[in-house]
Amino acid sequence: MAGKTKHHKRAREKGILSLDSMANDEKAMLAIIAVLAVAIVILAVPYLKNIKLSSGEKTYSAVAFEIGGCDECFDLGLVSAGLDSINNLNIKETTALNYTSADAEKLIKKYGITKIPALVIVSRSIGKIEMDDTLFRKTSDAAIFDKAAPYIDLGSLEVKGLADFKEIYDSKCKECASMSKLRAQLERSGVKIKSYEMVEASSEDGKKLISENGITFVPALLMSKNIMEYWWIFSAVQKSLAENKDYYMFTEPYFPYKELSTGVVKGKVKITYITNKSCTDCYNITQLKPLLQQQLGIYIASERYDDVSSSNGQSLVKTYNITEIPTIILSKEISDYTSIKTILEQVGSFKNNEFVFRKMEVLNGKFQSVGQAAE
Hints:
It is a single chain. By secondary structure, the chain is α+β, with helices and mostly antiparallel strands. The protein has 3 domains: 6-158, no CATH class; 161-259, Glutaredoxin; 268-374, 3-Layer(aba) Sandwich (Glutaredoxin), CATH 3.40.30. The chain has helices at 6-13, 19-35, 77-80, 102-111, 180-188, 204-213, 231-237, 288-296, 311-319, 341-344, 370-374; strands spanning 52-53, 60-68, 89-98, 115-116, 118-122, 129-130, 137-138, 142-145, 151-153, 158-160, 163-169, 193-200, 217-218, 220-224, 241-243, 247-250, 257-259, 265-266, 268-275, 299-307, 324-325, 327-330, 348-351, 354-357, 368-369. Mean pLDDT is 84; it is low at 1-55.
C-alpha cells in the first residue's frame, strides 16, 4: 500500500489538523453565518469533532482508503488528514484509489458505497472506536464516510452538488454591500460554485427574479436547491433561508441594503465616541469600531467625537444616563440589525432605538465614572 498521501501535506499547510480548532471554527460558522456578519474567516469543515474512544488508553490500528477520482468534488484529504490528530487512533497507512480501479470497486461493492469521494477506515477493532453515527456509518470491520459534497453519484455517474448563485444588485446604490465576502465565506467552508451570475435589479431578468422570489431588498443572493447537499452548512442556516420554486434565499439582508418598496438604504450606522481627553490612559474606545464591523457586520457610515467636558458631551451624558466613560452611542439605524440585537443587549442598552455601550468591565481597560471625569 502507498504511504501518506499528498492531501495530508496540503491539510497541514492549511492548518486544519487540530480537532479543537475545528470545533471552534464550527462555533464561529454557526454563530456568524446565522447573522450574516461580514468578515469571519471559516477555516475548516468540522467533520471529525465527535470521534473519540469509548474507554481506555489503548491505541487501535486502522487502514484508511480514500476513494476518489473527481477533480470537481470535495477534497477528501481534508478529512483523512484530520484522522492523524485523533488520540489513540493509529492510521498505519492511507491509500488513494480511483473509483474506477479494481481495488476501489471491491470496496464500493463490499461497503455499499453509492457516491464518491468516500473514506473507508478499516480496523479489526472498529467497534471499540466510538464515532458520531451522523458522520460515519459502521460495519463489522469498517467506518465509512461518504457524505462529502460535491460528489459523483455512482448510479448516474453525474457530479452533484455544484451550486449556482445569482446575486441581485442595484448598480446605482453605491453604499449597498457587496455579497463577495459572503461568497468567500461559503467557498471557504467547502461550497463549490459552478456559476455566479450578477443580475442588475432594474434589468428584465432582475425584475423577473425579484417578482418570482418575493425579493424585498437588494443586494439579495439566490442559491440553487442543491445547496442542501452541503449539510454541515445547510443545517446551520436553514432557518435563515426562504425556499422558492428554484432557489433558496437568505431572509436577512446584507448591510447596507436598499429597501425596494421605499428606495431607502438601510443599515448606515453613525457612531459617537464619548471620551475624557484628560484621561490619557483610559481605554481607547475607538478600538470597538473594527470589532463592530468585522465581528457583527455593522456598517459605520460616519464618526463623531465628543469630550465629556463639552456642552454636547454633557448633554449626551444626561440624555442617555451615561454613568461610565469612555463609551459609544450607535445611531437609530442600529435597530435595522434585528438579528444581533440580543448580542448587543449583553453589553449595553437601547433607548429610542439607539444603542449605548455600558458594560465597561468587559473591555479589560481603564474607565471612569462620570463623577470622576468631572473632578
